[in-house]
Amino acid sequence: MRAFIYTGGEIFPDNITEHPKGDDLRIAADSGYRNAVKLGDRVDIFVGDFDSLDEGELDERVEVVPLKPEKDVTDTQAAVDIALEKGADDIYIVGGLSGRLDHTLSNISILIDMKDCGRHAVIFDGRNRVRYIRNDSYLIARTGYRYLSVIAADDLVKGVEMKGVKYPLHNAKLKKSFQYAVSNEVEGNCAFIAVKKGGLFIVESRDR
């Protein structure tokens, strides 16, 4: 089952192509409800402490899971936890890549947790799209995102391959302290990315 998690931050609706279908689960994390409304997507469950959204904005058909302001997880993480409890295998996080940097870093880190749980996850806002792989490979189709970067998530990442791109990499090493595989570009229909040891964030992005 797929779950769409709508979180806060600026989104670029015209560039977002991923939308829920059929029985996909839709969960809004606090002000992420407004992003769901912008996209014209209905919400099944709202989770949050109403610190950035008024309860009166919610559709009366939405199930509400209230959170206390003093809590150990972010609203987005709480929404992801609910999705996992309901059996979601694929997590799509919409928003959460702008605004407060602490929230952005926390949201991106969720991708690592989902990998540890054996789930597929991606986070996007229409300007950026981020995935995480570890000791694995991935095909990236050429889309409206101009730039393709890989960012080391571990201190040292080994055996990095990038094919079908403007600046290929072969058996490369990347360090968390020195990120140089940035602002590449896909050539042709798709790019192949692989890593033998360690974790990589795959970042697709476009200029404003």
Kindly describe this structure.
The protein is of the alpha/beta class. Helices cover 17% and strands 36% of the residues. It is elongated, with a radius of gyration of 17 Å. A hairpin with a 5-residue loop joins strand 10 (156-163) and strand 11 (169-175). It is built from three helices and 14 strands. The strands form two sheets. Strands 4-3-2-1-5-6-7-14-9-12 form a ten-stranded mixed β-sheet. It has a four-stranded antiparallel β-sheet with strand order 8-13-10-11, with no helix packed on it. The chain has two domains: 2-126, Rossmann fold (3-Layer(aba) Sandwich), CATH 3.40.50.10240; 132-205, Thiamin pyrophosphokinase, thiamin-binding domain (Jelly Rolls, Sandwich), CATH 2.60.120.320.
